[in-house]
Amino acid sequence: MKYLSEYQDGDVARGLVQRIRATATRRWVLMEVCGGQTHTIVRQGIDELIDGAVELIHGPGCPVCVTPLEQIDRALHLAARPDVIFTSFGDMLRVPGSTIDLQQVRAQGGDVRVVYSPLDAVELARRHPTREVVFFAVGFETTAPANAMAVWRARQLGLTNFSLLVSHVTVPPAMTAILESADNRVQAFLAAGHVCTVMGWWEYESLAARYRVPIVVTGFEPLDILEGILLAVRQLEEGRHVVENQYVRAVRRDGNRPAQDLVLKVFRLIDRQWRGIGPIPGSGLGLRDEFAGFDAERKFALGDIRATEPALCRAGDVLRGKLKPFECPAFGRECTPERPLGAPMVSSEGTCAAYYNYGRARAPASGDH
Amino acid sequence: MRGVLQLRARARPGERGSLTSTASPANGPACPVPQSTYAHVQLGHGSGGKLSAALLRERFLPRFDNPALAELGDGAVIEALAGRIVVSTDTFVVAPLEFPGGNIGTLAVHGTLNDLAMMGAVPRCLTAGFVLEEGLPFDVLDRVLEAMSGAARAAGVPIVAGDTKVVERGKADGMFVNTTGIGVLRDDFRPGPRGGRPGDAVLVSGPIGRHGMAVMAAREDLRFQSTITSDTAALAPLVELLRDRVGRAVHALRDPTRGGVASALNELAQAAGVGVELEDHALPVPEAVAAACAVLGLDPLYVANEGILLALVSPEASEPALTALRSHPLGAGAARIGTVVAEHRGLVTLKTRVGGSRIVDMLPGDQLPRIC
Q1: Is the pLDDT of residue B96 over 60?
Q2: Domains and CATH numbers, chain B
Q3: From the CA of A180, how many Å to the nearest CA of chain B?
């Protein structure tokens, strides 16, 4: 299967690792933005291969992880209503709210269903006219077009029993927030390739120039990530700071214009709360007023639901790259994938789960076994 | 009286369509038994009354015909078995009931036979219990029973006792099947879960991930098309080959069903107090499985299999064991995927293609497809 295996070739990987090591004259600090990239890095042991030449800080780009606690509580509240069919991507089902998670709501009688596309939720609404179908619209720019399309389609069909519980966030404001923070250590970014398939990279050009930070649009296979790291290290060594595109097979500068247009027709930029990080101005998407009827928060008057994060969970520090998961006192003790305190321990893209599942900090010393 | 009413009812369509159609078998005059006219399982089929008796007589007994079952007693009488006996039971739930490569019936027979085979036992007989949901189409039930009888016959193992219950619509997912198997151990061949020793080769008898992905592809809500078929198969022939060629050098056997290769190897590592080191590049993952897993965000190591086995064999027996497995069509894709080590006891590690290393842990629950 060339389109996958050729991006995992061991010989090419070793060559890239050597070139990264040969190029770096000091230990550079890079952040991969996307949780999918974190997953590949830890799963394949890439951080260990380049340790010494590059430190990788894992970014906040896991949509499950940054969805605020109170939004999860709103989801739990809706899912428990007898008139509601609550639909979600599978990842969200085990994310703990203040009390329980969606799987437990389902066990207690809630109608919670995993779907693979928001359009499947629209179809459910069409087939069940007497029920309210709510889709949990989480994610970055990658999932926004499909969610916009779902609302568009529901309006076309004249459905009044379909709505989104929206928790959409966007990448550039989060990168800005990281660069603006007083204790920022990030010297270059690997930008999230799949976000850029939709949005392109023109948004990042001003960021790279203003903060003098190299940004490399990077894919998700091991060789993509190693090549992205090499390009970033080269820029750092040469004192350049531009946007480069490693993920040429999928990303163009302008991105996918029709998808962007649809997103802007349905959503508008709003301030959003990021779990563990706090509010970031203009970092989220909310439904436009003309689509208010499809907004579950307005439809079901959920504004009163508020929540506070568990004090023990240091997810915010992990998401900002200030703490490696195993440095958290709760990691592997009070907080495991079976009983997660915070979302990064739940999602397969979550940094804590990646470290736990792939045995980092429990793993035998690499190389000699 | 019932017969009279039926004759009247049948007469009407016959008259109307007399110029163009012939009566279907269901309308023919030969069979006065009412359930023949049902297309779906009714609650009455579990009543213990005439409908139940007819269900048994018409659909179950002809397919599972054997002397012990034919007695129709409250239990099956079988001859005394010499040696130590192995009993294994398993309950099967799968949605959809039918999928490319098999159905719940094939699984129910192969699954329990394979559990016996992994113990090194020779299977002697099976029992089968059915929970049918009201409304289950009879044509589905017929195909499931046909598959069960075919699988049992091919393995040479009779289904000697059975039971059928019907529950109200909505209280079961079409049908559930339980099978129990009885087998006999042999003195010279005792692969057990605790048998793994440092240095052992880790072998797999064929490509991984086929069953789980075939079932996922068959689900309505996924709508991805694939050519993946379930690997469901009885593994006894492979076990016999291993026993004949390398015998006691086989230290442990396990069929990696639910939880996949990763979970099965974790269990073997923990049971024997050893570590397992896998090589990513050696794992036989079919292209279609790898592609489907990549799209859905799943790891083939955790996807269910129903027709492959894992064997821990002493190092010098590794090649002869592979040759033995590959001599059978079921084992054509056999491969060595790793080694048992004395280090990191109870843990499975994997060397990645790019030269890194990681732990392959057990999952807390089902694999959940990720968002993007």
Answers
A1: yes
A2: 67-184 (3.30.1330.10), 201-359 (3.90.650.10)
A3: 28
Name the pairing type of β-strands B98-99 and B102-103.
antiparallel
Are B372 and A139 within 8 A, CB to CB?
yes
- Write down the mean pLDDT value for chain A: 91
Residue B37: pLDDT over 60? yes
Contact call for B353 and A44, based on CB within 8 A = yes
| Of A114, A115, A125, nearest in space to A84 by CA | A125
Task: Please give the residue of chain B at the shortest CA–CA distance from A61.
Answer: B372
- Answer whether A114 sits within 8 Å of B369, measured CB to CB: yes
Residue B81: its pLDDT value, please? Answer: 85
When CB atoms are compared, the residue of A1, A44, A358 closest to B291 is A1
Least confident of A191-195, A314-318, B126-130: A314-318
Give the ipTM of the model, two decimals please.
Answer: 0.79
Domain map of chain A by residue range? 65-170+255-299
User: Does pLDDT of B318 surpass 80?
Assistant: yes
Q: Which residues of B touch A340 (CB under 8 A)?
A: none
Residues of A in contact with B372 (CB under 8 A): 36, 63, 139-140, 142-143, 194
Residue recorded with tokens 């302008």: A254
Contact yes or no for A45 and B355 at CB 8 A: yes
Among A246, A251, A287, A283, which Cα is nearest to A267's?
Answer: A287
Per-residue pLDDT of B43-95, as tens digits, reads 989 888 888 989 988 999 999 888 888 888 888 888 888 889 999 999 999 99
pLDDT at residue A368 is higher than 80: no
The fold of A65-170+255-299 is Rossmann fold (3.40.50)
Residue of B nearest to A340 (CA): B364
Q: What pLDDT does A160 receive?
A: 97
Q: How far apart are CA A287 and CA A267, in angstroms?
A: 4
By 3-state DSSP, what share of chain B in percent is helix, strand and coil, each rounded to 5? 40, 20, 40
Helix/strand/coil for B220: coil
The CA-atom distances, in angstroms, between B145 and each of B43, B114, B132, B150 are 19, 19, 12, 8
**Residue A93 contacts B, CB cutoff 8 Å:** yes
CB–CB of A140 and B372 under 8 A? Answer: yes
- pLDDT band at B33, cuts 50/70/90? very low
Residues of A in contact with B359 (CB under 8 A): 357-359, 362-363
Q: What is the pTM of this model?
A: 0.84
Minimal Cα distance from A113: which residue of B? B221
Strand partners, A111: A85
CB spacing of A359 vs B287 below 8 angstroms: no
Tell me, yes or no, if B281 comes closer than 8 A to chain A by beta carbon.
Answer: yes
- 3-class DSSP state for residue A260? helix
Contact partners, residue A271, CB within 8 Å, separation at least 6 = A279, A280, A281, A282, A283, A284
Q: Min CA distance, B323 vs chain A (Å)? A: 26
Q: Which of chain B's residues have a Cβ under 8 Å away from the Cβ of A369?
A: 277, 341, 343-344, 349
Confidence at residue B2, expressed as pLDDT on a 0 to 100 scale: 33
Residue carrying structure tokens 């040759």: B323
The residues pairing with B40 across neighbouring beta strands, listed in sequence order, are B137
Please tell me the distance from the alpha carbon of residue B159 to that of residue B181, in angstroms, as a whole number.
9
Is B369 touching A (CB cutoff 8 A)? yes
What percent of chain A lies above the pLDDT cut of 70? 96
Please name which of A58, A66, A98 lies closest in space to residue A274, comparing C-alpha atoms: A66
